[in-house]
Specification:
four-stranded antiparallel β-sheet; single chain; alpha+beta
Length: about 600
């Protein structure tokens, strides 16, 4: 008979696992296993006759525990391997010999490697970090770090977009706040009405509201636009490329691109529309010029017109002759516009003009923004500022702030030259030409005297025909000229946070204060400021005080409505306008 089978080798057994059951590292810890039947003798690691495995008792798999060593028949050890996929589940130890004798001890310990980023150790499990906290990958997994930790350079208001945040960069500012960095620290600042801030808003990607502007995306210096939403459309520079409407550029979006001009509607329009796009350029200014011409020469035109009619229609005795019809028309107008009515209209017109001019300059002088409806009403009267051509169109012809200032300040001088030339041409050039031809006949002298009123005074005629238009034109533009000239000295820093400050004129943001062109106009600006501030009010006061009684004052209109002893008061009104405008500008320096 065959011999009986050999008994099976004794089965290895595990009685205990010595070592920590809460491994903080990801591998390399020593695991001591106590048991029996591990084989005789002592060997130096590695021991090729023995292998140790860590396994998941739920069947997820097993992983080799390398570098097995034996201290005796009852004790072996191995190095815990790097973290397996089932690292945070209950684990068992499985020992195998070369003879496949196996000893198992299921569920003796949990292999506890560190939790992944965005999670923390919660008992025997890893849980996601709550909102407002984060955790980077690393050995310390007992807790997540709060976003509002000043020691970590984070603002106390910071939150996260959800759970499981893995890094500090995922900490953001809450809605209605935006983030700004100072060095390595991050802070949250409250948004105001200048911007819209959602969760995670930063200074660089701030959503600027329409009607506001900032110099760059690196500054929190957000300012209201003088042109409102028409020019400053808002948004974000990263997405839109600009905060300005098309063809608008520069500070406050108030500068037009080349080939465009700022129209009456505060939009940059093509230079081709410089006349057709602005009816005041076509109608209002010529009408104002014609009215001034008629007012200055009404007596002369009347005299010359009657002379022309008489020369071409006979003696005018017929009631239907042009001469008689002209006289009846004058009487009809005079019956309606009585002296009292005329005086009232003159006073009302003078006061209304001063009021509208000062009101139109409120935004420009005091730096305030009027309600849009009120601005729309004032837009209809903007031609009364008499800088319409410069402000709305002359830049298409290369005329900037300085040329416009010079043209406006010298406008009364131009009136003096033009009206003086016309006066000389009407009165004396014919006689001078006759003298050059060999003398003046008696008939020519009689004809000249015939159409000169009784008691004709050359000086008085010169005052009413030349000096009056000069002084009245200077008086009318006092508010605008003063504001423009004083604006030469009024500068603004575009961005107070910028390292290199840029200073521009508040009245024209395309002009850099430190430029050579601007500096070259300094003497002219000083002289013009002295003239409109001191000299012109003094001349008006002298003309009203000394020439009123004789009825020869060239600025008689300015004294209408005052008592005789106070006819000079309009000079004080002119000074008051200068103080209101100049004071407002210089107080904002």
């Amino acid at each position: 008979p065959p011999p009986p089978p050999s008994p099976p080798p004794p089965r290895a057994s595990i009685t205990a696992v010595l070592g920590p059951t809460d491994f903080a590292e990801v591998g390399g810890e020593t695991l001591i296993i106590q048991g029996s039947n591990f084989g005789p003798g002592v060997c130096e690691p590695p021991c090729p006759d023995l292998t140790v495995f860590l396994y998941d008792v739920d069947g997820a798999g097993e992983v080799l525990c390398p570098d097995v060593g034996r201290m005796s028949d009852e004790f072996i050890w191995c190095q815990v391997p790097p973290r397996p996929a089932f690292y945070n589940l209950p684990m068992g130890v499985r020992v195998r010999k070369v003879s496949d004798t196996v000893g198992e001890s299921p569920g003796l310990f949990n292999y506890r490697g560190t939790c992944p980023a965005g999670q923390f150790r919660n008992g025997e499990q890893c849980s996601e970090c709550a909102e407002g906290s984060y955790r980077r990958a690393g050995p310390e997994d007992k807790e997540c770090l709060p976003c509002g930790d000043p020691q970590a350079g984070l603002d106390a208001l910071m939150i996260t977009r959800g759970t499981g945040s893995t890094k500090k960069a995922q900490c953001i500012c809450p809605p209605t706040y935006y983030e700004r960095r100072y060095g390595g620290n991050r802070f949250c600042f409250a948004c105001n009405n200048t911007a819209t801030c959602g969760a995670g808003s930063t200074l660089e990607r701030l959503e600027i509201n329409p009607g506001f502007w900032r110099n760059s995306n690196a500054t929190a210096d957000v300012r209201p636009c003088g042109l409102g939403r028409v020019a400053c459309v808002g948004g974000n520079e990263h997405r839109n490329g600009s905060l300005c409407a098309p063809h608008h550029t520069g500070p406050y979006c108030a500068v037009c691109e080349d080939g465009y001009f700022l129209g009456a509607d505060d939009r940059c329009s093509p230079c081709a529309d410089v006349t057709s796009g602005d009816p005041t350029l076509v109608f209002a200014l010529p009408l104002v010029g014609l009215a001034v011409l008629i007012a200055a020469y009404h007596a002369r035109l009347d005299r010359k017109l009657r002379a022309f009619i008489d020369r071409n229609t006979g003696d005018g005795s017929s009631p239907y002759s042009p001469s008689q019809i002209y006289k009846r028309c004058k009487l009809a107008v005079a019956s309606v516009l009585t002296p009292t009515v005329v005086v009232s209209l003159k006073v009302a017109g003078r006061s209304s003009l001063a009021f509208l001019q000062l009101t139109l300059l409120i935004e420009r002088v005091y730096g305030v923004t009027l309600p849009e409806r009120f601005r729309a009403i004032l837009a209809a009267f903007r031609f009364l500022q008499f800088d319409k051509l410069y402000a709305h169109g002359f830049n298409c012809y290369g005329m900037g702030f300085h040329a416009g200032m010079a043209a406006l300040a010298l406008a009364p001088l131009g009136v003096l030259v033009i009206f003086g030339s016309v006066w000389a041409a009407f009165e004396y050039l014919p006689l001078l030409w006759a003298h050059l031809r060999g003398g003046v006949s008696e008939e020519e002298m009689a004809s000249w005297r015939k159409y000169s009123p009784p008691g004709f005074d050359v000086r008085r005629d010169f005052d009413s025909s030349v000096v009056r238009p000069f002084l009245m034109s200077a008086y009318v533009i006092i508010p605008t000229a003063t504001a423009t000239i004083y604006s030469y000295f009024n500068i603004e820093t575009v961005d107070v946070e910028a390292e290199e400050k840029t200073h521009v004129l508040k009245s024209d943001f395309s002009v850099v204060f430190e430029s050579e062109l601007h500096s070259s106009y300094l003497p002219f600006a000083v002289i013009a400021a002295v003239f409109y501030t001191v000299v012109l009010p003094a001349i008006i006061s002298w003309a009203l005080r000394t020439r009123w009684k004789s009825g020869r004052s060239p600025v008689h209109l300015l004294g209408v409505g005052y008592r005789k002893e106070f006819v000079w008061w309009e000079a004080i009104e002119a000074t008051r306008q200068v103080v209101l405008i100049g004071g407002g500008i210089f107080l904002r320096l």
